[in-house]
Amino acid sequence: MAHNLVSIIIPVFNRASFLEATLNSVKAQNYQNWECIVVDDHSTDDSWKILNTYQHEDSRFKVFKRPDARPKGANACRNFGFEQASGMYVNWFDSDDLMKPTFLQSKIDKHAGGNFDLVLSKTIISTLGSNEYVNEHRTKLSSNLLEDFLTRKITWYLPDPMFKKSFLIGHILFDENLLGGQDRDFFQRVLLNNPEMLVINDYLTTYLKHNDSISEKIYNQGNFKITQSRVRSLVSFIKQLESEGRLPPSLKRFYTTELRKMIPMVHKDSKTTKSILKVLLKLGSLNFETLKNWSKVSLGLSTMMITGKGQKLFK
């Protein structure tokens, strides 16, 4: 493992219109000891041609195709990229975001000054075609970090953390079968391992919101398969929290609300609906509030089965 080498890992799928700006922001780094591992998810535009040009001009760019044996999607590309990484540190990045020139140096300096498993910077959110910029203020630490992250009081974006690679080895990385909410799923499992963390107050990434953003499409579609996948992941995580004794009443209430909201999107799939109801039963205790909530769920399911309406009863 090369000393102080940073492995930047970027999945790519049909990003020809954004890719050069992203890769140029990597080349512009003040810190020069990096490799950029780019895994193409079998793009059908000019992304592969652009990637090969950068690899030819600078050997620090290392370009791969996602192996056919791995499922399609960014998570498989991220995991495969990690398997190729030679760095002492790992920083995932997205193919349509930009890093400031001090992106790597600022985090390396903090890693060198302390024994941290991950050092996080902050992100600016920019909307394409406008002058709108928003600073993400929820990237911070707290005394109740796991719960605050799970309930979205605290959050960060995929490029924000630079990991010590040794911390990640042996842990589950990105869930290659999960279709939505992949970053949060990964980060919440990271937090279960109680990492030593530091947040620096520097906005070093520009996250670009645009109509072709995969995450924007996912959450605008309300896709059944995506919700089904997220239910599977969420149910599994709740069971893990419970087995580790990390599911206080406040989180039970939070997840009760989260799961109820998912029912209207998957109610036609009896298996997924039953898995939600089974967890909801375990999360609740027999009291007036629980009975009232179950009455709403029962009425909502019956109404949706008959009329296709009744979503408001699950809120």
Largest sheet: 9 strands, mixed
Share of helix, binned: 40-55%
Number of helices: 12
* Beta-strand residue percentage: 15-25%
What is the number of E strands?
9
Distance between the termini: 50 Å
Note down, in words, how this protein is organized.
This protein has helices spanning 16-27, 47-57, 74-84, 103-112, 145-150, 165-168, 182-191, 214-221, 224-243, 249-266, 270-283, 288-307; strands spanning 2-12, 34-40, 61-65, 87-92, 98-99, 118-127, 133-135, 161-164, 197-209. It is of the alpha/beta class. Strands 1, 2, 3, 4, 5, 6, 7, 8 and 9 form a 9-stranded mixed β-sheet that branches. A hairpin with a 5-residue loop joins β6 and β7. α1 (16-27) runs parallel beside α2. The N and C termini lie far apart (50 Å).
Offer a quick outline of the entry.
With 315 residues, the chain is of the alpha/beta class. Helix content is 46%, strand content 19%.
Give a quick set of tags describing it.
315 residues, nine-stranded mixed β-sheet
Topology:
Layout: E1 2-12, H1 16-27, E2 34-40, H2 47-57, E3 61-65, H3 74-84, E4 87-92, E5 98-99, H4 103-112, E6 118-127, E7 133-135, H5 145-150, E8 161-164, H6 165-168, H7 182-191, E9 197-209, H8 214-221, H9 224-243, H10 249-266, H11 270-283, H12 288-307
Parallel strand pairs: 1-2, 1-4, 2-3, 6-9
Antiparallel strand pairs: 4-8, 5-9, 6-7, 6-8
Helix pairs in contact: 1-2, 9-10, 9-11, 10-11
